[in-house]
Amino acid sequence: MTALLTLAAVLLDTVLGEPRRWHPLVGFGNWAKYLERHLYGDSRLRGVLAVAFAVGPWVALAAVPVWRYWIDIAALYFALGHQSLREHALRVRQALETGSLEEARIRVGYMVSRDTGKMDAQAVAAATVESVLENGNDAVFGALFWFLVAGAPGVLLFRLANTLDAMWGYRTPRYLYFGWAAARFDDVLNFVPARLTALTYAMIGSTRNALRCWRLQARNWESPNAGPVMAAGAGALELGLGGGAYYHGQWEERPPLGVGSAPDAAAITAALRLVRSGVVLWLLLVCGVEALAHA
């Protein structure tokens, strides 16, 4: 039954994409902002309480065995962002292919937190590919992993924690302590999925390069989970990624990732193909394991 539920949710995401209105994660974001207004303080304890109040009620609600299968499908569908990721990346690629650099900068700005206003075409393509690789874990494989492990409560826990990390997990004066719990919680939940994502990229792309880049470069990346994902993904695609970028007006040096040529518009297509092939591989494995279990 797990395989069928997973297939149904992936199919819904493929056909319907991200809900245009009344997206549950938008509502959750408003709930998190409400909690921040009332619980914020320069304290890790307050951050822990905020995470607990933000996530706990919804995970508990998803664990209630009422309409179980429908809740499972809905939870995974709303947690998946594969089709949305494709749509955003393809808009950037189209703008680059038509020579609309300003449009490409605007479009990639919806995908990344770095400053995009002065990017050249190569930087836009690189930022898009990096976003596709990283979100392949955050919005696709991580969600699939936690759904397979713990059903609707598991995938909700993962996706809501990831959303809180995106809102509070910054090392800025405001969130250095308050956002600590959100960032660490997301790191813990992402530890296994990130490495499975990196392994997926390695299996589908250039395996030797992916494993080598993972082994040598991942440790240099600031995030313990994004490092393996992006290093393995860059190696699998045989692309050179990473390097410095502007964030909030400040130049930040970042280690190099991958090996090979600089990315262009075609590299965006290759990155999307890598993630899509990974989804197909995971679905085949889930179906195969379930078939063997019932043989």
Task: Tell me what the structure shows.
With 295 residues, this protein is mainly alpha-helical. It has one domain (2-293). 72% of the residues lie in helices and 4% in strands. It has 11 helices and 4 strands. A hairpin with a 2-residue loop joins strand 2 and strand 3 (250-252). The chain is globular, with a radius of gyration of 19 Å. The chain starts with a helix and ends with a helix.
List keywords for this structure.
295 residues; mainly alpha; two-stranded antiparallel ribbon; 11 helices; 4 strands
Give a short synopsis of this structure:
This protein is mainly α and 295 residues long. The protein has helices spanning 2-16, 24-39, 44-62, 68-79, 82-97, 101-109, 121-168, 180-204, 207-217, 226-237, 265-293, and strands spanning 240-242, 245-247, 250-252, 256-258. It has one domain (2-293).
Describe the secondary structure blueprint for this structure.
Layout: H1 2-16, H2 24-39, H3 44-62, H4 68-79, H5 82-97, H6 101-109, H7 121-168, H8 180-204, H9 207-217, H10 226-237, E1 240-242, E2 245-247, E3 250-252, E4 256-258, H11 265-293
Antiparallel strand pairs: 1-4, 2-3
